[in-house]
């Protein structure tokens, strides 16, 4: 059944909450440490006070670390789909990735039907998981490692942590651009949990086929909604 | 003071009277520090603290022959020639004076603790209240006026010597020969160039460095070069590049998108 004859249900509530917890905590972690990354941003420390921001960094670190665990309790389905999909990167995902740059400049090549996550989203998920591990690992060693791990090793955590944060921020910019500017319809999936049938068929055709097969939605509904769009 | 100076702790002469600890606190107006509870040990503090920049360590040791030893050493900032703390400080708050003294400028320090993480000797301590990094400053304000550091001035056993690097190096070589008569394993520490470029706090150690909790092979970490020369500049370029790139993509999509429509 479509929602309002228009929307395909996509994300559970807990999953959306975790998405925003992860996104907001990452950005706050990035901002609260920015003055250490670039001298240009020293004014951020001057305005809010270095100590306050350093405590905030730890506060958001706890949220950032806890989010996947909250997700495993609150949004088991969403996270298991995420994991299964990310680790099943196939031929169609590769073709998608190769043709994807054209869509960025407004050209629409014919794409293989994509599943719940497309090839680009899968790469982003894998990258985010990797960065989470690196950031959390290096961060915990910096935070708690004194006296346990020798400084000759801990010193390496400073560039590693910074580098991972920089890559994560670049990925976040691209992610936000794609969601807000390029595909505003996709944003609905993370605010309301559903996306338009038209967008779903266009961007996640293989997933819609699965839904029809499972009987979650019918082909008739989808076609009607697409004609209306 | 344009001449390179150095302090030499002649460990064999040290009687662990701890007058230097008191003298250090006196000159720097550092309050007494009761952070280490007394439970029978002789060492006054477990480790350096934001108000204890100079610590006489008193380590008890039984050697392979079952003989008891009591190892004393004066521990504080080593004033490295290649100071990891300074090279890795994101706020450029640490500088090296001509004398060799490595000094923190509290006005610039933001208390991030990178200096402590990078330091091969794990020396700096962040004062949690003021959120500033603290450590021995080799009494740079005294030596720039021709005085000797407070700790060296007060030492009655002539265990702490202070003078030009050349004079101290010479003294160290001479004393080493004498100390070796009773301590065959005696060696100099920090006098000659090492992984941190040599230090301006130098020692004559009767036993190998590990006995005193000193790293055998201290090294200014290469990770600092990676961080300073690559990660920070690339991060900046990447940040600007990402924004410019996305703006470019946005305009291209407008142009091509219109054509397609
Ligand atoms: S011992 Fe540590 S704090 Fe002192 S100069 Fe060397 S790196 Fe800096
Ligand atoms: S704590 Fe202060 S002196 Fe140490 S690295 Fe950070 S800003 Fe520099
Ligand atoms: S040189 Fe000055 S600051 Fe350093 S331990 Fe001696 S008295 Fe303290």
Low-confidence stretches of chain B: none
Series of secondary-structure elements of chain A, N-terminal to C-terminal: EHHHHHHHHEHHH
Bound molecules: iron/sulfur cluster
CATH domain topology of chain A: Fumarate Reductase Cytochrome B subunit
Quickly count the helices of chain B.
7
The tally of domains of chain B stands at 1
Global shape of chain A: elongated
CATH topology of chain B: Alpha-Beta Plaits
| SSE pattern of chain B | EHEEHEEHEEHHEHEEH
Helix share bin of chain B:
25-40%
Our measurement of the CA-to-CA distance between the termini of chain A, rounded to an integer number of angstroms, reads 17 Å
- Biggest sheet strand order of chain B reads 8-1-10-9
Walkthrough of the structure:
The complex is a heterodimer of chains A (229) and B (261). Chain A is mostly helical. In chain A, 76% of the residues lie in helices and 3% in strands. Chain A is built from eleven helices and two strands, in the order βααααααααβααα. Chain A is elongated and about 65 Å long. With 261 residues, chain B is of the alpha+beta class. Chain B has a single domain, classed as Alpha-Beta Plaits (2-Layer Sandwich), CATH 3.30.70. Chain B contains seven helices and ten strands. A four-stranded mixed beta sheet of chain B has the order 8-1-10-9. In chain B, strands 2-3 form a two-stranded antiparallel ribbon. In chain B, strands 4-5 form a two-stranded antiparallel sheet. Chain B is elongated and about 85 Å long. The relative contact order of chain B is 0.18. The complex binds iron/sulfur cluster (3 copies). One iron/sulfur cluster binds at residues 89, 91, 93-94, 104, 109-115, 124, 133 of chain B.
């Amino acid at each position: 059944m479509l929602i309002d004859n228009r929307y395909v249900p996509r994300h559970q509530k807990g999953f959306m909450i975790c998405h925003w917890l992860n996104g907001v905590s990452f950005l706050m972690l990035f901002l609260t440490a920015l003055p250490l990354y670039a001298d240009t941003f020293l004014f951020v420390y001057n305005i809010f006070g270095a100590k306050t921001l350093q405590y905030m960094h730890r506060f958001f670190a706890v949220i950032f670390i806890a989010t996947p665990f909250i997700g495993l309790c609150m949004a088991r389905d969403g996270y298991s789909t995420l994991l299964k999909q990310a680790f099943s990167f196939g031929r169609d995902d590769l073709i998608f990735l190769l043709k994807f740059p054209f869509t960025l400049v407004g050209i629409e090549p014919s794409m293989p039907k994509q599943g719940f996550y497309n090839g680009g989203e899968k790469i982003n998920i894998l990258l985010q998981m990797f960065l989470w591990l690196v950031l959390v690992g290096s961060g915990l060693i910096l935070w708690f490692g004194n006296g346990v791990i020798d400084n000759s090793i801990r010193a390496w955590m400073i560039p590693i942590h910074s580098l991972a944060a920089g890559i994560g921020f670049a990925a976040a910019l691209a992610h936000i651009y794609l969601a807000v500017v390029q595909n505003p319809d996709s944003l609905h999936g993370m605010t309301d949990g559903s996306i338009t049938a038209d967008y779903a068929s266009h961007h996640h055709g293989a997933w819609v086929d699965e839904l029809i097969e499972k009987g979650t939605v019918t082909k008739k509904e989808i076609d009607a909604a697409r004609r209306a769009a | 003071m344009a001449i390179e100076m150095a302090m030499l702790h002649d460990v064999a002469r040290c009687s662990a009277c701890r007058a230097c600890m008191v003298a250090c606190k006196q000159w720097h107006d550092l309050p007494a520090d009761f952070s280490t509870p007394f439970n029978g040990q002789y060492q006054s503090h477990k480790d350096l603290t934001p108000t204890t920049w100079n610590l006489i360590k008193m380590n008890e040791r039984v050697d392979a022959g079952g003989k008891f030893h009591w190892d004393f050493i004066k521990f504080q900032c080593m004033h490295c020639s290649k100071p990891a703390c300074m090279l890795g400080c994101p706020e450029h708050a640490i500088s090296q004076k001509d004398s060799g003294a490595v000094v923190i400028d509290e006005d610039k320090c933001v208390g991030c603790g990178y200096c402590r993480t990078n330091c091969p000797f794990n020396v700096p301590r962040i004062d949690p209240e003021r959120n500033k990094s603290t450590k021995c400053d080799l009494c740079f304000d005294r030596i720039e006026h021709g005085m000797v550091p407070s700790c060296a001035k007060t030492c009655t056993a002539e265990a702490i010597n202070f003078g030009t690097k050349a004079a101290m190096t010479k003294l160290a070589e001479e004393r080493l020969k004498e100390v070796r008569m009773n301590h065959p394993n005696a060696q100099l520490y920090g006098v000659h160039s090492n992984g941190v470029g040599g230090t301006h706090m130098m020692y004559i150690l009767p036993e190998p460095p590990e006995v005193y909790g000193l790293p055998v092979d201290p090294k200014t970490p290469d990770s600092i070069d990676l961080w300073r020369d690559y990660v920070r500049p690339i991060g900046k370029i990447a940040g600007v590049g990402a924004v410019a790139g996305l703006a470019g993509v946005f305009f291209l999509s407008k142009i091509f998108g219109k054509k397609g429509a």
